[in-house]
Amino acid sequence: MEENKDLIIAVAGTGYVGLSIVTLLSQNHKVYAVDIISEKVDLINNRKSPIQDDYIEKYLAEKELNLTATIDPKEAYTNADFVVIAAPTNC
Q1: pLDDT tier, 20 (very low <50, low <70, confident <90, very high otherwise)
Q2: Tens digit of pLDDT for each residue in 39-75?
Q3: Averaged pLDDT, 22-43
Q4: Complete domains list, the chain, with CATH
Q5: What are the residues whose beta carbons fall under 8 Å from the beta carbon of 29, sequence distance 6 or more?
Q6: Predicted confidence band at 2 (pLDDT cuts at 50, 70, 90)?
Q7: What is the 3-state secondary structure (H, E, C) of the chain?
Q8: Beta-carbon count within 10 A of 30 CB
Q9: Residue 4's CB: how many other CB atoms inside 10 A?
Q10: CA dist., res. 89 & res. 70, Å (int)
Q11: What is d(CA 28, CA 66) in angstroms, rounded to the nearest whole number?
Q12: What angle do CA 6, 85, 15 make, to 5 degrees?
């Protein structure tokens, strides 16, 4: 892989772990946040956090992020260099 290449990264799941990864990686790479709940996707696209976390809320509101949230897995995964699975752990 080329050094300093802008990566396309898809993150499946927008809970605490997924959103933490999304806010970190989207500062330097194109990131797709994928979730099945359209209300969460809408909030993220409007730069509002669907969970209560001071840092995530601050980053979404104030940082320049290359971030798109979607419910369409094809949009996110087709050209992704990496896919991160951030599944719930409370099962």
Answers
A1: very high
A2: 999 999 999 999 999 999 999 999 999 999 999 999 9
A3: 98
A4: 8-85 (3.40.50.720)
A5: 6, 7, 8, 9, 66
A6: low
A7: CCCCCCCEEEEECCCHHHHHHHHHHCCCCEEEEECCCHHHHHHHHCCCCCCCCHHHHHHHHHCCCCEEEECCHHHHHCCCCEEEECCCCCC
A8: 18
A9: 5
A10: 22
A11: 7
A12: 100
How far is CA 12 from each of CA 5, 19, 40, 74, 77, rounded to the nearest angstrom?
A: 22, 10, 13, 12, 9
CA distance 21 to 91: 21
> Could you give the CA distance from residue 5 to residue 8 in angstroms, rounded to a whole number?
10
- Residue written as tokens 């969460």? 40
Q: Is the distance from CB of 34 to CB of 10 less than 8 angstroms?
A: yes
